[in-house]
Design goal:
By secondary structure, the protein is α+β, with helices and mostly antiparallel strands. Helix content is 31%, strand content 21%. The strands form 2 sheets. Strands 2-1-5-4-3-7-8 form a 7-stranded mixed sheet, with helices on one face. Strands 6-9 form a two-stranded antiparallel sheet. Helix 2 links the parallel strand 3 and strand 4.
Length: 199
Protein backbone atom coordinates (compact mmCIF):
# COMPACT_ATOMS: atom_id res chain seq x y z
CA UNK A 1 0.00 0.00 0.00
CA UNK A 2 2.82 2.39 0.91
CA UNK A 3 4.58 1.64 -2.39
CA UNK A 4 1.35 2.32 -4.27
CA UNK A 5 0.91 5.68 -2.52
CA UNK A 6 4.51 6.65 -3.29
CA UNK A 7 4.03 5.68 -6.96
CA UNK A 8 0.81 7.69 -7.07
CA UNK A 9 2.52 10.72 -5.53
CA UNK A 10 5.33 10.53 -8.11
CA UNK A 11 2.80 10.21 -10.95
CA UNK A 12 0.85 13.22 -9.69
CA UNK A 13 4.04 15.26 -9.32
CA UNK A 14 4.98 14.37 -12.91
CA UNK A 15 1.56 15.42 -14.18
CA UNK A 16 1.77 18.64 -12.21
CA UNK A 17 5.19 19.42 -13.68
CA UNK A 18 3.85 18.70 -17.16
CA UNK A 19 0.87 21.00 -16.61
CA UNK A 20 3.16 23.83 -15.51
CA UNK A 21 5.17 23.52 -18.71
CA UNK A 22 8.71 24.69 -19.29
CA UNK A 23 10.68 27.40 -17.53
CA UNK A 24 13.52 29.56 -18.81
CA UNK A 25 16.60 27.33 -18.93
CA UNK A 26 14.63 24.15 -19.69
CA UNK A 27 14.94 22.05 -22.82
CA UNK A 28 12.04 22.80 -25.18
CA UNK A 29 9.83 19.78 -25.91
CA UNK A 30 9.94 18.55 -29.49
CA UNK A 31 6.72 18.25 -31.46
CA UNK A 32 5.55 16.87 -34.78
CA UNK A 33 2.46 18.70 -36.01
CA UNK A 34 0.60 19.22 -39.29
CA UNK A 35 1.39 22.42 -41.14
CA UNK A 36 -1.17 24.29 -43.26
CA UNK A 37 0.48 22.78 -46.36
CA UNK A 38 -0.40 19.28 -45.10
CA UNK A 39 3.20 18.34 -44.23
CA UNK A 40 4.31 17.32 -40.74
CA UNK A 41 6.77 19.71 -39.08
CA UNK A 42 8.92 18.95 -36.03
CA UNK A 43 11.05 21.32 -33.96
CA UNK A 44 13.94 18.93 -34.59
CA UNK A 45 13.55 19.56 -38.36
CA UNK A 46 15.14 23.00 -37.83
CA UNK A 47 18.63 21.55 -37.80
CA UNK A 48 20.39 24.57 -39.30
CA UNK A 49 18.61 27.15 -37.12
CA UNK A 50 20.39 28.94 -34.29
CA UNK A 51 17.10 29.00 -32.41
CA UNK A 52 13.38 29.39 -32.98
CA UNK A 53 10.47 31.61 -31.99
CA UNK A 54 7.60 29.30 -31.04
CA UNK A 55 4.36 31.27 -30.80
CA UNK A 56 1.07 29.73 -29.72
CA UNK A 57 -1.51 31.75 -31.64
CA UNK A 58 -4.75 31.33 -33.58
CA UNK A 59 -7.17 32.78 -36.15
CA UNK A 60 -10.00 34.24 -34.09
CA UNK A 61 -8.43 35.96 -31.07
CA UNK A 62 -8.34 39.79 -31.34
CA UNK A 63 -4.93 39.83 -29.61
CA UNK A 64 -3.56 37.28 -32.08
CA UNK A 65 -4.97 39.32 -34.96
CA UNK A 66 -3.47 42.52 -33.55
CA UNK A 67 -0.03 40.87 -33.43
CA UNK A 68 -0.35 39.01 -36.75
CA UNK A 69 1.58 41.47 -38.92
CA UNK A 70 4.23 41.88 -36.23
CA UNK A 71 4.69 38.09 -36.16
CA UNK A 72 5.07 38.06 -39.95
CA UNK A 73 7.62 40.90 -39.72
CA UNK A 74 9.54 39.15 -36.94
CA UNK A 75 9.91 36.06 -39.13
CA UNK A 76 11.01 38.16 -42.11
CA UNK A 77 13.63 39.91 -39.97
CA UNK A 78 14.96 37.02 -37.93
CA UNK A 79 14.52 33.81 -39.97
CA UNK A 80 17.50 34.80 -42.12
CA UNK A 81 19.49 35.35 -38.92
CA UNK A 82 18.70 31.83 -37.72
CA UNK A 83 15.56 32.44 -35.65
CA UNK A 84 12.46 31.42 -37.64
CA UNK A 85 8.93 31.76 -36.29
CA UNK A 86 6.96 28.55 -35.75
CA UNK A 87 3.31 29.35 -35.08
CA UNK A 88 1.09 26.76 -33.38
CA UNK A 89 -2.70 26.90 -33.04
CA UNK A 90 -3.53 25.24 -29.70
CA UNK A 91 -7.31 25.75 -29.75
CA UNK A 92 -9.93 23.00 -30.02
CA UNK A 93 -12.10 23.82 -33.06
CA UNK A 94 -15.13 22.14 -31.47
CA UNK A 95 -14.99 24.95 -28.87
CA UNK A 96 -13.89 27.70 -31.29
CA UNK A 97 -14.89 26.79 -34.89
CA UNK A 98 -12.95 29.76 -36.31
CA UNK A 99 -9.76 27.93 -35.38
CA UNK A 100 -10.38 24.83 -37.50
CA UNK A 101 -7.54 23.43 -39.62
CA UNK A 102 -9.34 24.44 -42.83
CA UNK A 103 -9.72 28.04 -41.64
CA UNK A 104 -6.06 28.03 -40.55
CA UNK A 105 -5.15 27.15 -44.14
CA UNK A 106 -7.37 29.95 -45.42
CA UNK A 107 -5.93 32.52 -42.99
CA UNK A 108 -2.33 31.59 -43.78
CA UNK A 109 -3.01 31.91 -47.52
CA UNK A 110 -4.88 35.23 -47.21
CA UNK A 111 -2.19 36.78 -45.03
CA UNK A 112 0.76 35.18 -46.83
CA UNK A 113 2.29 33.57 -43.77
CA UNK A 114 6.00 33.04 -44.49
CA UNK A 115 6.34 30.66 -41.50
CA UNK A 116 4.98 27.26 -40.49
CA UNK A 117 1.48 27.43 -38.98
CA UNK A 118 0.87 24.16 -37.16
CA UNK A 119 -2.25 22.60 -35.69
CA UNK A 120 -1.94 21.17 -32.18
CA UNK A 121 -4.48 18.45 -32.89
CA UNK A 122 -5.55 16.74 -29.67
CA UNK A 123 -3.99 19.63 -27.70
CA UNK A 124 -0.93 17.61 -26.71
CA UNK A 125 1.82 20.19 -27.25
CA UNK A 126 0.69 23.44 -25.62
CA UNK A 127 0.48 21.90 -22.07
CA UNK A 128 4.09 20.68 -22.40
CA UNK A 129 5.13 24.29 -22.93
CA UNK A 130 2.68 25.68 -20.39
CA UNK A 131 1.06 28.11 -22.83
CA UNK A 132 -2.11 29.75 -21.49
CA UNK A 133 -2.78 32.53 -24.00
CA UNK A 134 -2.87 33.30 -27.70
CA UNK A 135 -0.36 34.65 -28.46
CA UNK A 136 2.16 33.12 -26.02
CA UNK A 137 5.84 33.31 -27.00
CA UNK A 138 8.71 30.89 -26.34
CA UNK A 139 12.11 32.02 -27.63
CA UNK A 140 14.48 29.08 -28.03
CA UNK A 141 18.25 28.92 -28.46
CA UNK A 142 20.02 25.93 -30.00
CA UNK A 143 22.63 24.40 -27.72
CA UNK A 144 24.14 21.30 -29.29
CA UNK A 145 21.19 19.25 -30.58
CA UNK A 146 18.74 20.74 -28.07
CA UNK A 147 16.58 23.82 -28.14
CA UNK A 148 16.69 25.61 -24.79
CA UNK A 149 14.09 28.09 -23.54
CA UNK A 150 15.53 31.61 -23.20
CA UNK A 151 12.47 33.87 -23.02
CA UNK A 152 8.75 33.34 -22.30
CA UNK A 153 5.92 35.84 -22.54
CA UNK A 154 4.60 38.52 -24.85
CA UNK A 155 5.93 40.19 -28.01
CA UNK A 156 5.99 43.82 -26.84
CA UNK A 157 4.31 46.24 -24.46
CA UNK A 158 1.40 47.43 -26.63
CA UNK A 159 -0.81 44.96 -28.46
CA UNK A 160 -3.31 47.67 -29.47
CA UNK A 161 -0.97 50.01 -31.29
CA UNK A 162 2.37 49.01 -32.80
CA UNK A 163 3.37 52.65 -33.28
CA UNK A 164 3.06 53.21 -29.51
CA UNK A 165 5.34 50.29 -28.54
CA UNK A 166 8.11 51.32 -26.15
CA UNK A 167 9.56 47.89 -25.30
CA UNK A 168 10.08 45.23 -27.97
CA UNK A 169 10.63 42.37 -25.50
CA UNK A 170 10.93 39.56 -28.05
CA UNK A 171 13.02 41.42 -30.62
CA UNK A 172 15.36 42.67 -27.87
CA UNK A 173 15.77 39.12 -26.58
CA UNK A 174 16.57 37.75 -30.06
CA UNK A 175 19.05 40.60 -30.67
CA UNK A 176 20.77 39.78 -27.37
CA UNK A 177 21.09 36.10 -28.32
CA UNK A 178 22.50 37.00 -31.73
CA UNK A 179 25.04 39.31 -30.05
CA UNK A 180 25.94 36.61 -27.52
CA UNK A 181 24.77 38.79 -24.64
CA UNK A 182 22.82 37.91 -21.53
CA UNK A 183 19.11 38.68 -21.82
CA UNK A 184 18.05 41.71 -19.78
CA UNK A 185 14.55 40.25 -19.44
CA UNK A 186 13.69 36.55 -19.67
CA UNK A 187 10.01 36.58 -18.79
CA UNK A 188 6.97 38.81 -19.26
CA UNK A 189 3.26 38.18 -18.81
CA UNK A 190 1.59 36.80 -21.94
CA UNK A 191 -1.31 38.99 -23.02
CA UNK A 192 -4.08 37.39 -25.06
CA UNK A 193 -7.13 35.14 -25.22
CA UNK A 194 -7.35 31.98 -23.12
CA UNK A 195 -6.66 28.71 -24.95
CA UNK A 196 -9.94 27.03 -25.88
CA UNK A 197 -10.08 23.55 -24.38
CA UNK A 198 -12.77 20.90 -24.84
CA UNK A 199 -14.44 20.26 -21.48
Amino acid sequence: MKTLLISLAIALASLSALAQGVKVGDKAPDFNLKNVDGKMVALSDYKDAKGAVVIFTCNHCPYAQAYEQRIIDLHKTYAAKGYPVIAINPNDPSVQPQDSYELMQQRAKEKGYPFAYLFDEGQLVYPKYGATKTPHVYLLQKRGADFMVEYIGTIDDNYKDESAVKEKYLANAIDALIAGKKLALTETKAIGCTIKVKK
